[in-house]
Amino acid sequence: MNKKRSKFEAFLHDIIKFLILIVFSLIFRTKYIYEDKTNKKRKITGGTILVSNHNAWDDSLIILNAFFSRRLRFLVKKELAGKKGRSATLMRIFGMIFIDRKSLDMDAINASLEVLENNEVLTIFPEGTRVKGEEMGGFKSGVSLLSLKSKVPIVPIYVKPYEKWYKRRVLVVGSKITTHLSDNMCINLQNTEQLTDEITRRIEELKKLA
To answer: Cβ-count burial of 164 within 10 angstroms (0-12 exposed, 13-18 middle, 19+ buried)?
Structure first.
């Protein structure tokens, strides 16, 4: 289910991503705001987890454009794995990892860790589903567990909900959250929940910039 992309699928990924960039730049005119004004290139290197709120069908596409220089992977609900035809092809091209939200899905966790160990970028919507309006849903702690185990940074993201169909979408990219534990500390429920609270707080702060 959670297989690696072939070189041809990676090539198709880049072509489709370029077409998406054109559409969103010319038609949707998405506005990108960066919390870190000093990082002019605004590029991310190495393994990274992108964490965002989720309120509309095109959130993934907007994030894809914000980090155009990288091939993003997405952690998505396993219910999407049953899609067929073009949808299934697109999910395979974009290297989706399917996770069972109702259980401890070790296959998805291990696949996600492998992605991060390979210095790829993994995108996660920790609310677990779309949440309409300004208020965000509760964040699941799985993203914190992945970050602590893989020792990769988190980039918080806020996507402003739709107001009117003709208004620009707005995405705010926050500064990195580093998550390394000291050598004498182990991963436990307390530090996992603390990191989840920190991610939630940082994304709430990004709302003020949107």
So the answer is: exposed
Q: What is the pLDDT of residues 127-136, one digit of tens each?
A: 877 887 777 8
7-209: CATH superfamily: Glycerol-3-phosphate (1)-acyltransferase (3.40.1130.10)
Nearest CA to 67 out of 38, 46, 90 is that of: 46
Q: How many residues does the chain have?
A: 210
What is the spatial distance between Cα 62 and Cα 57, in angstroms, rounded to a whole number? Answer: 10
Per-residue pLDDT tens for 5-40? 678 878 888 898 888 888 877 777 888 899 987 765
Q: How many CB atoms lie within 10 A of CB 5?
A: 16
DSSP letter at 40 equals: S
What type of residue is 178? T
C-alpha 168/C-alpha 11 separation (Å) is 30
* 115 and 124 Cβ atoms separated by less than 8 Å: no
Rg (CA), the chain: 17
Question: Residue 12: CB partners within 8 Å, gap ≥ 6?
Answer: 93
The structural domains of the chain, with segments of one domain joined by +, span 7-209
Residue 25 to residue 2: CA distance in whole angstroms: 31
Q: What is the pLDDT of residues 59-111, one digit of tens each?
A: 988 998 889 889 899 998 887 766 666 677 777 778 889 888 777 788 899 99
